[in-house]
Each structure stands twice: as C-alpha cells, then as structure tokens.
Amino acid sequence: MPGILNRIKEYGRSPQGRRTIATARRTAADPRKRAQARSWLGRLRRR
Description:
Structural class: mainly alpha
Oligomer: single chain
Order of helices and strands: HHH
C-alpha cells in the first residue's frame, strides 16, 4: 500500500496533478455542481 500512496503524492506534485487539483477546486466551489453532486450521492445512498 505505501507504493500507491507515494504514487498519488507524486502525481499531486506534478504539473498535470496540480492542474487536476485546480480544476477540482473550481468545480467544488460552483454551487450548481455541488447541488448536482449531492443529488447523485443521495441517489447512490438510497440504493
């Protein structure tokens, strides 16, 4: 397992990983996207 965690850390430090993180943060800050995510999670939890 430590190998997987190290790979994730390395990806987060890479330029591509930083872009991915920035995109995820922008998406998470959008109220409409948050509502959409809550809706999807609610559907999954009901099953």
